Amino acid sequence: MPDTIPPPPSPPPTDAPPRAGTLITSLWSMVLLAAALVFAYLIKNDNLMIVLTGVIATNATTVVNFYVGSSASSQAKDRTISNQLPK
Prior knowledge:
Elements: H1 20-42, H2 46-68, H3 70-84
């Protein structure tokens, strides 16, 4: 009987683009925020409009930073490491 149990196999890395669910979720959140911004404009609530504009800008910045920032680099590093491991 071996002294150690081998780790379970990891799923193969993929270079596929983001899943459709991720894209749909991101777009849906932007649509909802835009609808809330229009609603705030229609009811003439300036404070709500200012806050929602900030939320939309922050949401868009977060999405862009994920795909081109450190998270994308981290995912590429993880793929490189997993490709180096013996199979």
